[in-house]
Automatic annotation (TrEMBL):
One of its GO terms (cellular component) is microtubule cytoskeleton. It holds the Pfam family Tektin. One of its GO terms (biological process) is cilium assembly. It comes from the Eukaryota. This is Tektin. It comes from Trichonephila inaurata madagascariensis. It is found in: Cytoplasm, Cytoskeleton, Cilium axoneme; Cytoplasm, Cytoskeleton, Flagellum axoneme. InterPro entries: Tektin-like (IPR048256), Tektins (IPR000435). The keyword Zinc does not apply. Microtubule inner protein (MIP) part of the dynein-decorated doublet microtubules (DMTs) in cilia and flagellar axoneme. Forms filamentous polymers in the walls of ciliary and flagellar microtubules. Residues 89-116 form a coiled coil. Belongs to the tektin family.
Length: 425
């Protein structure tokens, strides 16, 4: 009868599935049971019922207290776990934000790099066009401008190759950071889902034992099949990899900025050296052209004066020819006069003397004509040569000043220390 009461009363307590052998009775309860053996059967039955009711109240109170303590422990364990998950979620979100900022910086540096490469392509295009223009110069030879221009094109191509390698490094860093951000965002989503599950199940009846063990919570192990220490260590490794990736990206940014700065400075240096050499060549050619113009003016003046002298000498030659004919006629008349018998008298000798003077002067005039004709021929040859030089210099100056320097003015030169160069082309 007593065993039946114990079994029925025990099962009547909600949440308790224990057997009565686990209940410890006090010495007073045992004494009451011992002294109750002398009572009447009815009184003994009432005493046993009262004793069983008292033990049931104590057992119920103990079970409720134990259940309340267990539920509080489980609730505290859930709270600590949720706090830790929120902490990791905040940490992951901060790292994701830092990765996003670093990705934006990488994209900005990559845009600047593309703009610098576009600028270098414009510089290379202008250099090639300058070389093509200079090939049109008549009798063009290798000079300092051509040598500096080759160095400029070589430097531009070299810097562009370095910037291309920097662009590849930036793209590699960006892919690594995007992968790291994707992995961390996956972890953030897993933490958010875990918090959502905990929030939905925090008021449910606890089905698990106390204390809280993550391995016993199968719902919590959907995304983290390992222990709590393992996934914390995994998260720490992912964050360390993310920090290392951000550090590498920052170093790549600094290295790219330094490469761009140094490369643009080298290109600007070569550019201004070539432009300055072109400007000096144009100034030299202008001075040479000015001298050629002066020489041509002098040659024209000499040609004019020589032609005037030739005209004067031709007039003198005609006068001398008429005087010679007259003197010869006089001499013939005196020589063959009647009765003279070819006597060499004073008039004849005087005519001979005048005729000799006329012949000497004619010889002098002929020599002058010959010299002036030779001089006129040399002047004409020199004039033709100076005219060809003038045409060649004019075309060269036009090509270098209007085409080459005019084309180079269309490029806004970028670099460091531009005030050290002559920028007024």
């Amino acid at each position: 009868m007593r065993e039946n009461h114990k079994s029925m009363y025990t099962h009547a307590i909600p949440g308790v599935n224990r057997i009565d052998e686990h209940i410890r009775f006090t010495q007073a309860e045992k004494s009451i049971s011992h002294f109750g053996d002398g009572l009447l059967p009815g009184d003994k039955l009432l005493a046993d019922a009262a004793n069983a009711q008292q033990r049931g109240r104590q057992t119920k109170l103990w079970c409720e207290t134990t259940t309340r303590i267990g539920e509080a422990g489980v609730r505290d364990a859930y709270g600590r776990r949720d706090a830790k998950i929120r902490q990791w979620k905040e940490h992951l979100n901060k790292e994701v934000d830092k990765l996003a900022q670093q990705i934006q910086q990488i994209e900005a540096v990559h845009r600047d790099l593309l703009r610098s490469r576009q600028y270098l392509s414009n510089v290379a295009r202008v250099s090639e066009m300058t070389a093509e223009f200079r090939k049109q110069i008549p009798d063009s030879t290798e000079d300092d401008v051509g040598r500096l221009q080759k160095e400029e094109m070589t430097e531009t191509i070299k810097v562009d190759m370095e910037l291309e390698q920097c662009a590849k490094d930036l793209m590699g860093c960006q892919r690594q950071m995007e992968n790291a951000r994707k992995a961390l965002m996956t972890e953030v989503e897993a933490k958010a889902l875990s918090l959502n599950i905990s929030r939905r199940t925090q008021h449910a009846e606890p089905l698990l034992g106390f204390p809280y063990t993550p391995a016993d919570h199968h719902v919590d192990q959907i995304y983290h099949p390992d222990t709590e220490e393992d996934w914390e260590r995994n998260l720490e490794n992912k964050i360390q990899k993310s920090v290392a990736t951000r550090t590498e990206a920052s170093t790549c940014n600094l290295r790219t900025a330094a490469t761009v700065k140094d490369g643009l400075s080298k290109v600007a240096n070569a550019w201004y050296k070539t432009s300055k050499a072109l400007q000096e060549a144009v100034q030299r050619d202008e001075k040479s052209l000015f001298n050629v113009h002066n020489r041509l003016r002098t040659i024209n003046e000499n040609v004019t004066s020589t032609k005037q002298r030739l005209d004067s000498l031709f007039d003198d030659m005609r006068i001398q020819d008429r005087s010679k004919v007259l003197q010869l006629w006089r001499l013939q008349t005196l020589t063959y006069r009647p009765g003279a018998d070819h006597i060499r008298d004073a008039p004849v000798r005087r005519l001979d003397q005048e005729l000799g003077n006329i012949e000497k002067r004619g010889t002098f005039i002929n020599d002058g004509l010959t010299r002036n004709k030779d001089l006129l021929g040399k002047l004409e040859e020199e004039k033709l040569e100076q005219t060809l030089v003038m045409e060649r210099l004019t075309k060269k100056i036009y090509i270098e000043r209007e085409n080459c320097l005019g084309m180079r003015r269309t490029v806004a030169v970028e670099g460091v220390g531009l005030k050290d160069y002559v920028t007024d082309l």
